[in-house]
């Protein structure tokens, strides 16, 4: 019988020791004799996030109730990849805030931030090479490639609020869900489980990542800066296509679409509040959350045949937590 846990502290409790080891290894990995790099990395360590991807890696590595010393090393590499993408995202977004701290971009500027992200990518693949496993290297090299492709495609498709929903979902698969998927597959791989469960955990991670991004899309409209740790409304001001905005444009008549698009391109005063009101009125947020719920339901199906354990309980609870962020 699955026991639902609430709050990340409770969800992460079964892997608390592993996460403490992960944090110690991350701190050690980010230490540097170079003053500039040391300053940047000390700032990064203050920007504590949910460590969802490392936690997923470690939880999936225990689905057969065993412990692999390689799981924490993989979790470390995954967090370095994720952090690199966030640094680059903040440059693209001109974002001043990340996890309630000034972004690397805001503190050190564009050029240093670009290289800092590249530096962490390089570190991540150095850590992956220490695992000395061809399968792992292939999976994460492919994942990094897909993430970059998704980022490029998102930028290319700015302002395309009439794009096909399927195309939008492919973009968020690439830029967000791919790393969730790889993290869960990699963890399951080190659990010693069979190929079927590795694939099921990959599908669980994919669905969780898709739902996580869609919920983020909604929170960019209805969330608040303090609780999110980043500025809300950035997607609107950048003209990035998100699922609730896609649904909003689908709900409008041609003349309304053209008028709203013009306002978005010129960044008129009160635009964010206007779009928020329109998204609520047209039930675009509600519709997007229904899509996120579909992905969570599918994620949970992939946990059904896992052996009962506190780790399975946490994987199920994480899926529910993903949706509850927007309630």
Describe this entry's structure for a reader:
- It is a single chain.
- The chain has 327 residues and is mainly α.
- It has helices at 8-12, 16-29, 35-46, 52-60, 69-93, 104-108, 110-131, 134-156, 165-191, 195-222, 225-228, 234-238, 243-251, 254-266, 271-281, 284-301, 310-324; strands at residues 97-98, 101-102.
- The chain has a two-stranded antiparallel ribbon with strand order 1-2.
- The longest helix is centred in the middle third of the chain and has 28 residues, at 195-222.
- It is globular.
- The model has no long low-confidence stretch (mean pLDDT 93).
Task: Return residue spans where pLDDT drops below 50 for at least 5 consecutive residues.
Answer: none
Q: Report the top-level CATH class.
A: Mainly Alpha
Radius of gyration: 20 Å
- Tell me the number of helical segments per DSSP (H or I, 4 or more residues long): 17
Mean pLDDT: 93
Q: Helix proportion of residues, in percent? A: over 70%
CATH topology descriptor: Farnesyl Diphosphate Synthase
Q: Largest beta sheet: what is the strand line-up?
A: 1-2
Beta-strand share of residues: under 5%
